[in-house]
Each structure stands twice: as C-alpha cells, then as structure tokens.
Amino acid sequence: MEKAKAFLELTQGESDRVSSLAFPPHRLGTECSFYEYYSLRGIRVDRIEPGQVFCTFKVPPRLTDREGKLASGAIANLVDEVGGAVVYVEGLPMNVSVDMSISFLSSAKAGDELEIIGRVLGQKGGYSGTSVLVKNKTTGELIAEGRHSLFGKHASKM
Amino acid sequence: MEKAKAFLELTQGESDRVSSLAFPPHRLGTECSFYEYYSLRGIRVDRIEPGQVFCTFKVPPRLTDREGKLASGAIANLVDEVGGAVVYVEGLPMNVSVDMSISFLSSAKAGDELEIIGRVLGQKGGYSGTSVLVKNKTTGELIAEGRHSLFGKHASKM
Amino acid sequence: MEKAKAFLELTQGESDRVSSLAFPPHRLGTECSFYEYYSLRGIRVDRIEPGQVFCTFKVPPRLTDREGKLASGAIANLVDEVGGAVVYVEGLPMNVSVDMSISFLSSAKAGDELEIIGRVLGQKGGYSGTSVLVKNKTTGELIAEGRHSLFGKHASKM
Amino acid sequence: MEKAKAFLELTQGESDRVSSLAFPPHRLGTECSFYEYYSLRGIRVDRIEPGQVFCTFKVPPRLTDREGKLASGAIANLVDEVGGAVVYVEGLPMNVSVDMSISFLSSAKAGDELEIIGRVLGQKGGYSGTSVLVKNKTTGELIAEGRHSLFGKHASKM
C-alpha cells in the first residue's frame, strides 16, 4: 500500500510547493475553465483547410511529468481539445466525448515545438470521428496518434 | 479560422486571470512534477488487493471544463496515473505508455466523489495491460472505463 | 512489393485448397450470414445476469491463424458479437458499431475452452458502451479485453 | 436468455446450410490458415511506398453480416492483417498484436471496391504502431480507421 501511496499521493513537501496557487472559478458555459487555460495556453491555430486544423504548440514545463517529458495525460488533453475544435469548425454536432484512444509513439520535452493536426474522419448520425496527430515540428517525428469520437446530444436539431 | 482560434486559443482576459500563477520547476526523476500535482492532488489510495488498487478522489474545480464537468483530459490523466500505479505496485515493467483508450459513459461535476479502480489485466513480455474504472462513489454509476498499456524498456533485465 | 504480396495475397496452392467451398447467400435481415456462422458456430450462452452475458466457446481450428493461435480478427469478432448481444438483451439501441478497441493479453489455441463475458458499461443518449472479456476457462487467464461502442440510429424512437 | 441465444447461437437450419463445408487443416507456421484465406482472399497489393502499403479489396459476400454490410469483425481482420503487412514489409519486429482500436465511420456492401492503406506510425523499442484506413475506392468515403500495435518478442535480436 505504501508503494501505491508513494506513486499516487503527494508528499507534504510537494503540496507546500504549490499550495499558494489559487485556481480562480469561472462562469460555466461562457468562460474557459482554468483547466483549459492550463492545458492549452500557448497553442496557436496556424491554418485551416476543409476538415483539418493545423496548430503549433511549444511544450511548456507545466505539462511535463516526473521525467521532464510531455505527460501522457497532457497529450490526451490535446487530442481531446484539437479533435473537438475541428468538429466545432466544421459545424458538426459535438456535445459529448464518447471514446478516445491514443498511441504514444515517442516523447517530447519542454521547449520542443509540436505540430498538432486535427482531422475529421467522418460522421454518422450525430456521431463524429476525428483523428489528431501530434508531431515534433522540427524533426517531423510522430509523437502520438489519437482518435476522438464525439456525439451530439441534439443531433436532430442540426 | 476565427472559430478555431476562439475554440482553442485563450483571450487576453482569460490569460490575465491566471497570469500571476507561477509553476515551479521540479528536479527530474526525483520529484513529482507540477503536472502530477495538478492532476492528482487529493487522490487517496484506500485499499490494495492482488492486481488491484482502489482510490477515491473528490472532483476539484481545477479539473473541470467549460461546462463545469470533469474534463475528458483529466479523466485520461487518472487512467494514465492509476493504471501506472497498479503496474508499479505489482512490480511489473512500466517505463513507457504505449496505448490508452477510454470510453466516456457519463460525467462528474466538482465536488462529486469518485471511486477509481485500477486493475492489471495481464502481461506479455515487457508489456502490461491495465484497466481503470472511474465511478461515481455515491451512485455507483460508471463515468469512464479506460485501458492503459505500458511497455518496459528494459524488459530483458526484469 | 513481393514481401507484401507474400504476406497478404494467397498463393495458387492455397486458393486451390479451398476453391471448392461455396458460401451460400442469405436473406438480408432475416437470416444469419455465412460470416456469422463462420465466426460464431459453437458459441454457447450459459447464463444471463442483469447487464451481463456469459458464454463458452471452444476454439475451432477454422479460426486459427498461421501459428495455430486464435486469430486476432476472430477475437475482434467475438468482442463485436458478444458486445452486441448484451446490448440486444438489455433492449438498448444498437444499430451501428462506432468504436471497438481490444488489448490482446495472451493467446488461445484450437481446442482451448474460452469463457466470454459481455457487460454493459453504460449508456448515454443512443450510445451504449460494452466490455467483453475473453478468458481461458480452464486457467482463468485473460486472453483479451475489448470495448465495443454501439450507437442506435433511431434513438429518438426508443 | 432466449434473446441472447437467438442473437448468438445458430439455428439448426443455419447450421445445415453450411454443414457440408470442410475446413482443411494447415501446416503451422508454413501455410496460410483457412482463416487467413477466408478473410483475405481477393485482396491485392497495388503499391508500396516507404512506410506505406496500398491495397484494393472487393467486398465478398462471405464477409457480410445479417444486413449485408461488411462485418465489423471483417474490418478488424483487415486492420490486423494490413497493419501486420506494413510492419513486415518495413522489417520491424512484429510477433504479437498487443492493441487494436477501430472507428467505424460508414459501411460497405458486397461488391463495393475498397482501398486499404496501411502505414507505419512509429516505433519504440520492439513496439510498432500502425494505422490502417479502409475507404470506398469509388467515392473516397472513409469506412473505418484503425490502429494496430504490434510487439516483437525477440526485439533484442533485431
């Protein structure tokens, strides 16, 4: 049990390092949440083509894990948000994430510049499938490939 | 392009709300990163059984999205970390995440108490598969089911 | 190109071995297709509990791959069909498969007896998530874990 | 229980329709199994580029489901085999499938001509990630997108 605690729970010292941070509340539905600020700040939309969104993002230290690599969860955030953005841009129904899957093919460290490409794969009823590629912009190496499926609750109105 | 910018990039106002936060650096390999603090602070390891870890976690406002729901990316973090923890506890090789997939079945809001169960599914060579269930602790409703596959780089030494 | 041809395309000899087989047509919507016969013949429904279906299946030689192991695609068939069955039994909308993901944790050979457990994970709108475990019935070892998401086209009528 | 039996188990009539088919045994490791013949017969490798394999495949009646659509499991077979082929062509280690995930975006019926594109996404240690697109060759519409991860048991020798 101690091993699991050490792995998951934070020590007092770690808690103290950040206890002074205050996360301001946001107005639901109208404002970006702190979470979105935290995961996306610094992302840039470079170009849009039909069914595709191209972004760049410099890996910030705040999203790195124990080893200084871009955290897997932070990659999942990018797949979630950039997949959502491409569906939004295309005007497809998108209220709810239903499935997400990601292959992690290599890693990125703080300061690396990423190219993130979101694509609509297709649509069936109120359900939209997207693909998100996360690449090292300098080397072209693929860091992760994700798929994100969204389902529009109010599909019938669209 | 403006739609995508509005969806992904942050406005000046949003940036100002949080610009005062400083994310302290961490010593690689020895300290938890801010990212881990941010995604996991408050998680509690309740119980360990062979191949299983049971945790509770009260959804903090800092992990909610625009609509005030636990963000999909934050659920992915939990799948990543709790899956990693159960592999770590079992002493299986676990250096690298190779695949993660998640079904989102319902949602949670700030203050909801979650039960998070990580299980080892099996192991093949240096590769370990885990399953992570995220439930509403009060109602028992399943919020997400995730799978996380990890691969040990130094499998031959283990 | 020759390598890919050798891997994917069949030689004349292989074609000759089976060229005498005739696959009878079926009446759409009312009859099982040959495909279903081929992938499922021999499966037995042993027990049903709320939200769960328990089956047994002895691995037939016809579903084994080059190495004599139950083919990955055949495991995918089981995840697809048993996931579909549990949704059908529960009376949930299920017209269309939208996502399927599988972790392969060990293997089975011809003659091995499998236990296959399908579970409803949850439902959101017309969308249902299921989990399918494929185990060796004798040893209890997990062979594969799959998730299958189905979406009901006519959700509004249900 | 009757509903599940009706869904999964075959009736006597269905069994009789195909009981005359004999599935010839194959020599392990050296011959294609009947399963591979059954799922792949008719596939054609059209072109190879670095890291990519392009195939065409006309949907045969033998792979259609109850509704006359290419079965989800048959699509999974194609993702499995074409993903395996591209790894094989590239000379990457590939002994074992570890993960497969598929989004089903539209459907195909008997006689439709498919284009199937397998791509290497990347490689980490003995682990290789591939992506497989299944398209309608006439309309260009995407039918399915799959990812297939393979792991080489003898990675250290390669």
UniProtKB/TrEMBL annotation, chains A, B, C, D:
Q: Which InterPro entries match?
A: ACOT13, HotDog_dom_sf, Thioestr_dom
Chief location of this protein?
Answer: cytoplasm
Which SUPFAM superfamilies does UniProt cross-reference here?
Thioesterase/thiol ester dehydrase-isomerase
Any one Gene Ontology BP term: lipid metabolic process
Q: Which UniProt keywords apply?
A: Acetylation, Cytoplasm, Cytoskeleton, Hydrolase, Lipid metabolism, Mitochondrion, Nucleus
Molecular function in Gene Ontology: deacylase activity; hydrolase activity, acting on ester bonds
- State the reactions this protein catalyses: a fatty acyl-CoA + H2O = a fatty acid + CoA + H(+)
Give me the Gene Ontology terms describing cellular component.
cytosol; mitochondrion; nucleus; spindle
Q: How is the quaternary structure described?
A: Homotetramer. Interacts with PCTP.
- Output the PANTHER family linked to this UniProt entry: ACYL-COENZYME A THIOESTERASE 13-LIKE (PTHR21660:SF60), THIOESTERASE SUPERFAMILY MEMBER-RELATED (PTHR21660)
The task this protein performs is described as:
Catalyzes the hydrolysis of acyl-CoAs into free fatty acids and coenzyme A (CoASH), regulating their respective intracellular levels. Has acyl-CoA thioesterase activity towards medium (C12) and long-chain (C18) fatty acyl-CoA substrates. Can also hydrolyze 3-hydroxyphenylacetyl-CoA and 3,4-dihydroxyphenylacetyl-CoA (in vitro). May play a role in controlling adaptive thermogenesis.
Q: Which family does it belong to?
A: Belongs to the thioesterase PaaI family.
The name under which this protein is listed is: Acyl-coenzyme A thioesterase 13
